């Protein structure tokens, strides 16, 4: 591969949800790449700046039907190839968020087929946020994934921590048989930049030194055009591209033009982390709980909520549907799991639309599915990626004329002060 003289992007990434896309984009930016995020399957009329190093396509494919996930992902891949991308990445959650019926395996197989490749890696680890893989098992800090709060995820309950066991039923039989574990000893005894035998590798990773070695083995390896995993590897892939002389390091983030006025925080995630962040935020910011039963039955009026927002003499407000797992399960049992999620997403999206129409141009969203629904509902096609609020959550500015600023947070990301830190960063 030669130096990127024509200013074509090096990396094309496909993320299975919107928070995951911005998560990856933030680490690519940290590694030295200039990044643009495209929302939804890209259309042919999207224009890119001539200095973009990486494109991240955000899809809402984590929990959709398998055929739809494959269709959207392969269409995005074709567009990225048209833009001149030479390396590719399939981004999914650092807590996997994919059951035995999930889409990670089928999408990976479909992308590899389009690239005429038979090998890849699975590396969800994000050590800076406590997501590590040891002996093929995914951990959230000191807990196995299956012992963590993710076992109660309302859409993708993670009841197993063994990545090979999770992936096997998602793959065609011949590919399931090619799954192999690259443990830490095997990883570190391999010389950097040397050929790696063909397989579907589940790679152990417990710290940033491991991420660096994984990137040395695979990021510029011509036999591995597609890598898959979480966002953590992105920073080290970017560093390898710079080291290889494929592009010039940007060093500075894209500039974001700040917007005056209120910031609206919308929390649709029921994660333990988000619920704690709401508790901390309510000590300093007006908060309003949106009743899930009222949303599910159509009794909650978004216009009334907007009236409440406008009455608050504060620089920010928090609206949330987040609830304890028991309450979520009760609502799902009464109204149906998919129906409850869809109604919540529709309600929060309508509130975001009304807020934007009333010149509220700073919006923070907690929850992957919620973020995808709101970004799609607001017809935001592309973002410039700016500085991070916390690891994996950057501030982004829409390419739309109003310059809407958004931050999309995966439910489990951020410390307890996240919302307050977001306000300081955005305002």
Automatic annotation (TrEMBL):
Reactions performed catalytically: 3-dehydro-D-erythronate + ATP = 3-dehydro-4-O-phospho-D-erythronate + ADP + H(+); 3-dehydro-L-erythronate + ATP = 3-dehydro-4-O-phospho-L-erythronate + ADP + H(+)
Annotated signal peptide: none
MF annotations from Gene Ontology: ATP binding; kinase activity
EC identifiers of the protein: 2.7.1.217
Family to which the UniProt record says this protein belongs: Belongs to the four-carbon acid sugar kinase family.
Organism: Catenovulum agarivorans DS-2
Residues covered by the Four-carbon acid sugar kinase nucleotide binding domain: 264-419
Domain of life: Bacteria
Residue span(s) of domain Four-carbon acid sugar kinase N-terminal: 11-235
NCBIfam families tied to this protein: OxoTetrKin (NF043035)
Keywords: ATP-binding, Carbohydrate metabolism, Kinase, Nucleotide-binding, Transferase
Purpose: Catalyzes the ATP-dependent phosphorylation of 3-oxo-tetronate to 3-oxo-tetronate 4-phosphate.
InterPro entries on file: 4-carb_acid_sugar_kinase_N, 4-carb_acid_sugar_kinase_N_sf, NBD_C, NBD_C_sf, OtnK
Protein name: 3-oxo-tetronate kinase
